[in-house]
Amino acid sequence: MAVCVAVIAKENYPLYIRSTPTENELKFHYMVHTSLDVVDEKISAMGKALVDQRELYLGLLYPTEDYKVYGYVTNSKVKFVMVVDSSNTALRDNEIRSMFRKLHNSYTDVMCNPFYNPGDRIQSRAFDNMVTSMMIQVC
Amino acid sequence: MEGLTLSDAEQKYYSDLFSYCDIESTKKVVVNGRVLELFRAAQLPNDVVLQIMELCGATRLGYFGRSQFYIALKLVAVAQSGFPLRVESINTVKDLPLPRFVASKNEQESRHAASYSSDSENQGSYSGVIPPPPGRGQVKKGSVTHDTVQPRTSADAQEPASPVVSPQQSPPTSPHTWRKHSRHPSGGNSERPLAGSGPFWSPFGEAQSGSAGGDAVWSGHSPPPPQENWVSFADTPPTSTLLTMHPASVQDQTTVRTVASATTAIEIRRQSSSYDDPWKITDEQRQYYVNQFKTIQPDLNGFIPGSAAKEFFTKSKLPILELSHIWELSDFDKDGALTLDEFCAAFHLVVARKNGYDLPEKLPESLMPKLIDLEDSADVGDQPGEVGYSGSPAEAPPSKSPSMPSLNQTWPELNQSSEWETFSERSSSSQTLTQFDSNIAPADPDTAIVHPVPIRMTPSKIHMQEMELKRTGSDHTNPTSPLLVKPSDLSEENKINSSVKFASGNTVADGYSSSDSFTSDPEQIGSNVTRQRSHSGTSPDTAAPPPPPPRPQPSHSRSSSLDMNRTFAVTTGQQQTGVVAHPPAVPPRPQPSQAPGPTVHRPVDADGLMTHTSTSPQQIPEQPNFADFSQFEVFAASNVNEEQDDEAEKHPEVLPVEKASDPASSLRVAKTDSKTEEKTAATAPANVSKGTTPLAPPPKPVRRRLKSEDELRPEVDEHTQKTGVLAAVLASQPSIPRSVGKDKKAIQASIRRNKETNTVLARLNSELQQQLKDVLEERISLEVQLEQLRPFSHL
After folding, report:
1. Among all residues of chain A, which has the CA nearest to that of B307?
2. Which of A106, A108, A113, A132 to mutate to test the interface with B (most CBs of B within 10 A)?
3. Which end of chain B, C or N, has fewer beta carbons within 10 A?
4. CA distance B327 to chain A (A)
5. In sequence order, what are the beta bridge partners of B684?
6. Any coiled-coil ranges, and where (chain A) (predicted)?
7. Does domain B278-355 have CATH number 1.10.238.10?
8. Which residues of A touch B324 (CB under 8 A)?
9. Measured between alpha carbons, how far is B159 from B154 in angstroms, rounded to an integer?
């Protein structure tokens, strides 16, 4: 279950970040921030590789003793970062992928909203609901 | 219109009556039918009724709006109370009892009265005019209510609550004030943006015209408020709508709500409701929305792009965040564009929000976009409805409205369900499709989906076994199968058996025994086999592959090397020479070919060798084949042959024969060994076969070989050997029962055999050439070494 979900814009500023309030959120914010470097590294490594679903999913960015950080990047260089709890029964890769897929879909819906200006913070309730469902699902 | 202050009970009662009369919930139109009924039930003289109607302005307007209706009711009460009918009497008469209507509906009314009474008692918010609701039509109840009302009235009188509940100048606004009051319990009449029914209607008219103006509506603030009111009003009249504009989450726990709930309950009861949807769009609203839609997108079935919708809704001056949320709710299919339904839903939400209602978390059912088909029909229905509405407001919309809400109610469910169904259908269909596909293949073995199963054209031992099994099953007993069972064991000795088999095959006319039949049928058999193979391949469900048709070998011979056929034939023939009658039939030909084989072996003629090997798959000595081949090579290379007297041990002969390059020869021998089938008959049988002249076709190559051999090697020994072998073969021939008949088949078989022989020989030729090349390369390498050594020697 995701402990923290973050959507980072292309310019590496957060569009949306939310974490379960079990701990001080600052720690998660910091983790997400540090993971951005790993994401950039992976993106550059891909280089000319075909950008397909597989490429969009970056996989495990880096693990810590308590958490694992997964990354996902869209074609428009919008990054999704998800922090999951390691103590949880190891979530399978497929599950992580599906979660990212849901994130991507919800993000697409948000973008479709003409009242949403790209670059704004995501304040869509539907998006919030979806993220909440993701964060609670495997509780 | 003169102001009309109604007491709480009156208000409720009147609104209830209005709702009752407003069957089709047009909110402002009261068809004369029910109203007249009501008035008749009031037991008033007709002239009084007419006077009332005139006074309330219905005759002027042509219909009963809420305000008119209320005034009328008030006047009825006045009249029933005996007061003179005057406009002023509406407000001046105190303690007017509620108008009594003697009609069957009075039950409800009485109930309403009772409820009103109780409510009024509870609420205790009465205006100055607090006419105790008298007993309705049924006098008994009326008395009861009257009694109950009386004390209540007094109680109510004690509580000069703000005339919140009392209708303001314009009844239309009363609901509005109701609502406003609900939101601002203390506000009371503070907020009455609209005063007078006239202005009410005019805004609506403005709205109508404003809709034509489109943007003007939004730009001007004046229209929106009336719209609001209109909207709010529109929502309230049907009692359910009263509740509608009060989303459960919203504001109010005022008395109004209870009243509204009561009226709603009544409404529900009356209309078997599907109406209790707070977010239902009324027809007026819908018409307005549609008009607005048209201004942006003339095609009602088209879409409004997101940008245009954004502009449009931005004019409503709602915060972007809320507009964003409204969009999320209304864009049902998340396509970034609004259909007519989506647009109406969005507009409705905007209006609601502007009126102060919170946005729901998810789209209410009534706002869900309908299915496309229904949407079209609904639109079509809307058009006439709206037209009718404008023309004769009383009829068309009322007729439509009952259907609309039901549609609204059903569509969302249908929509959802249909969507879910479609999803499930899709998923299930895909699943079924996949399952179906998976089932198709095995289910239909005879389809063209044969290719997946490779039909063994190439003769594999196992395949041969199968085919033999099939064949045996179909034609013979097991004898042949065991023959095939050991194809691997085919060695040179099997060649002989095969020859025998051939002979027997000839005798048997089933196409397998006789060589001619063998050759003639192979194709058909092969095809049958292939077909059967295909069947077996495609339909694994079949218990067992059909028994191979006779003569699998011909197919093999066709497709693959002749050797296999020879081999198998030899094997079969060899293993059970006597058992199978068919094989014996065949051998005669090969035997003649075999016979000259050994003789040819002597000459060590390349061509002869090949022909020998090809024509005489079966052979007595296999090694002679090898030996022949190698010897032949040797002969070609070194021209040393004379020593090959005993063809039986060709191998040992080969070895000593080898001179120039032992490895090469051994290589050749090895190669020859590998081609046992081919070389089996090799020279000896070839020679033998050559010697035999009785069979015309087979002996042809033999004869050729003989000639060539004669030409090449006029060795007497070989000739003698050839003749000897030939004699042996000839001797063997008569021993073999042979069917002299079927010359044609024999000829054909021989022709085929010759062809096969040719192919085999061609292959042999290529292989020999390859060997030659290798040998030459080795020679070159050796020479190079010599060269390298020489300088040293020189040095």
Report:
1. A114
2. A113
3. C
4. 7
5. B598
6. none
7. yes
8. 113, 115-116, 123-124
9. 9
Question: Is A113 in CB contact (< 8 Å) with chain B?
Answer: yes
Q: Judge whether B323 is closer than 8 Å to chain A, CB to CB.
A: yes
What residues in B contact A125, CB-CB < 8 Å? 325, 328, 361
Phi, psi (degrees; rounded to nearest 5) at A74: -95, 175
Token digits for B251?
């504001």
Tell me the per-residue pLDDT of A72-121, one tens digit each, with 9 for 90 and over: 888 888 889 988 887 766 667 888 888 888 889 999 888 888 888 888 88
What is the domain partition of chain A in residue ranges? Answer: 2-134
User: What pLDDT score does B327 carry?
Assistant: 84
DSSP sequence for B412-430: HHHHHHHHHHHHHHHHHHH
Distance from CA of B363 to the nearest CA of A (A): 11
DSSP string, A44-106: HHHTTS---HHHHEEEEEEE-SSEEEEEEE-TTS-EEEEEEESSSSPPPHHHHHHHHHHHHHH
Tokens of B340: 């007519």
Instruction: Give residue B145's pLDDT.
Output: 41
Q: Is A106 on the interface with B (CB under 8 A)?
A: no
DSSP string of B227-257, one letter each residue: HHHHHHHHHSSSHHHHHHTS-TTSS--SHHH
CA-based nearest distance B306→chain A, Å: 5
Q: Which parts of chain B have pLDDT scores under 50?
A: 1-2, 104-276, 373-445, 447, 473-543, 552-557, 559-561, 570-628, 637, 639-708, 712-715, 718, 734-737
Q: Is the pLDDT of residue A18 over 70?
A: yes
Who has greater pLDDT, B163 or A122? A122
Intrachain domains B8-92 and B278-355 with the same fold: yes
Are the beta carbons of B307 and A124 separated by less than 8 Å?
A: no
CATH number 3.40.50.300 is the correct assignment for the domain at A2-134? no
Residues from chain B contacting residue A113 (CB–CB below 8 Å): 306, 324, 327-328, 331, 336
**What does the domain layout of chain B look like in residue ranges?**
8-92, 278-355
Which residue, among B320, B328, B335, would best test binding to A if mutated, counting the most A CBs under 10 Å from its CB?
B328
d(CA B515, CA B617): 13
What is the separation of C-alpha B581 from the centre of its chain, rounded to a whole number of angstroms? 60
CB contacts, 8 Å: B323 with chain A: 115
Nearest residue in chain B measured CA to CA from A126: B328
Q: Comparing A127 with B358, which gets the higher pLDDT? A: A127
Residue B619 token pair: 């052979």
From A112, A115, A123, residue closest to B334, measured CB to CB: A112
Angle formed by the axes of helices B716-735 and B683-691, nearest 10°? 80
How far apart are alpha carbons A71 and B291 in whole angstroms? 48
Residue A14 main-chain phi, psi, to 5 deg: -75, 135
pLDDT of residue B620: 45
Q: How far apart are CA B648 and CA B721, in angstroms?
A: 11
| pTM flag (> 0.80) | no
User: A128 — contact with chain B (CB < 8 Å)?
Assistant: no
Say if the Cβ atoms of B324 and A115 lie within 8 Å.
yes
A114 touches chain B (CB under 8 A): yes
Homologous superfamily of B8-92 in CATH? Answer: EF-hand (1.10.238.10)
The predicted-structure confidence for B183-211, as pLDDT tens digits, reads as follows 444 433 433 433 444 343 444 444 444 44
Q: Determine contact: A123 vs chain B, CB below 8 A.
A: yes
Structure tokens at B434: 């996949």
Contact B9, B150 (CB under 8 A): no
Half-sphere exposure (Cβ direction) of B267: Cα atoms closer than 13 Å: 32
CB B95 within 8 A of CB B129: yes
Q: What is the DSSP string of B438-495?
A: HHHHHH-TTSSTTTTS----S--HHHHHHHHHHHHHHTS-TTHHHHHH-STT--TTHH
